[in-house]
Amino acid sequence: MNLFPPAEVAKNYIATGKGKVSTPVPKMFFLAVLAGVFIAMGGIGATTAAVSIPLPSVGKLVGACVFPGGLTMVLLAGSELFTGNCLLTIPLLEREITAAGMAKNWAVVYLGNFAGSLLAAAGVVFSHQISLFGNGMAVSVISTAAGKCSLSFGDALIKGILCNFLVCIAVWISFAAKDAAGKIAGLFFPIMIFVLSGFEHSIANMYYIAAGLFAKGIPSYAQAAAEAGVETGSLTWGNFLGANLLPVTTGNIVGGAVCVGCAYWFIYLKKTEK
């Protein structure tokens, strides 16, 4: 077989998780910065592809097919992604790592992902890459960010749960594959489905909303968005952090750490009495 069976994936992840937690903090942080950039690049490519296609429904599908490139870079190039690391509940429940060690990893990686996302967002906005298609891409960037900041707490939370359920399933499938081609093929469909469905990924949103905020501050982009009828009143740094990242991150933890990590630990690793 060219795949590890699920029970073996669960066992193998224990060593993977121990390695993640024991990584020195400076290296952990810079690996997380890379992951933030990788996910942002997936978002940049997805938006560019979607805006280039006149029919919105087709553009959304094409963009969803491009976005998995971000997670491909995360898993094959080497980096640390907060949402994938929600699977650390597996070695935690096996008592191979501590809650403090997991919390440290989550905190450092989340901040590193945020830094990488901001760098990528600033890069595409201030290099005027989003002026493509007669500022059509800028309009899309601002509109996407404003929409994410307009979600209710409950909607953002549930979409965050659904999103990271799929992301962690994608990571799980990639760990089952024994070669690069299998990893890419395995992660593709869960990620494509979450993007196509409009679920909420905290690290992707660090890029999407930051890019929208940066673009809103450039008069030509703000004017193009206004002329297109985009309502930007909700697009503020306060709503970015409180109305989106807070519920989405919470939902991502539930979807990944509980619905995937705890579930697979219970199924494959929990000792049962005869």
Structural commentary:
With 274 residues, the protein is mostly helical. The protein is built from 12 helices and no strands. It has helices spanning 6-22, 25-51, 56-66, 68-78, 89-93, 99-126, 132-149, 153-176, 180-197, 202-216, 219-227, 237-268. Helix 2 packs antiparallel against helix 4 (68-78).
Short account of what is shown:
With 274 residues, the chain is mainly alpha-helical.
For this entry, give a set of tags:
274 residues; mainly alpha; 12 helices; 78% helix
Roughly what percent helix?
A: over 70%
Q: What is the strand content?
A: under 5%
Globally, the shape reads globular
Give the count of helical stretches: 12
Largest sheet, in brief, is:
none
- Assembly annotation: single chain
Kindly name the structural category: mainly alpha
SSE order and pairing:
Layout: H1 6-22, H2 25-51, H3 56-66, H4 68-78, H5 89-93, H6 99-126, H7 132-149, H8 153-176, H9 180-197, H10 202-216, H11 219-227, H12 237-268
Helix pairs in contact: 1-12, 2-3, 2-4, 2-6, 2-10, 3-9, 4-9, 6-10, 7-10, 7-11, 8-9, 8-12, 10-12
